[in-house]
Design goal:
This protein is of the alpha+beta class and 102 residues long. The chain contains two helices and five strands; from the N terminus they run βββββαα.
Length: 102
């Protein structure tokens, strides 16, 4: 999983013997499925169908969410290293506020 989007979809790397086409359903485990809706560069756009659960709620089982958040945090640090004046985030049509936990 590369990025979770706000509308119940996610951008993900998919490794399979055949490239999944839009409309193909991927089964992760019983009750957790995603439909391939398209591509963005090298990533696949997946729309999760998990009984109304958000993508993060789906990832909570078995520690997947913790792994995802840790990997995403490392990627953010590489992309936006901390500076003496703070960290500048490149934003495009999205407003976000970050703060340090004490």
């Amino acid at each position: 999983m590369e990025r979770v989007l706000a509308d119940g979809t996610a951008l993900a790397h998919v490794r399979s013997s055949k490239t999944p086409k839009p409309g193909r359903r991927l089964v992760f485990e019983p009750g957790i499925e995603a439909e391939v809706t398209g591509r963005r560069d090298d990533l696949f756009v997946l729309r999760f169908d998990a009984g109304g659960l958000s993508v993060f709620e789906v990832l909570e089982g078995e520690g997947e969410r913790a792994d995802f958040v840790a990997a995403y945090g490392k990627a953010l640090l590489r992309a936006y290293p901390p500076q003496a004046f703070g960290t500048v985030f490149a934003l495009r049509r999205i407003f976000a506020v970050a703060h340090k936990r004490k």
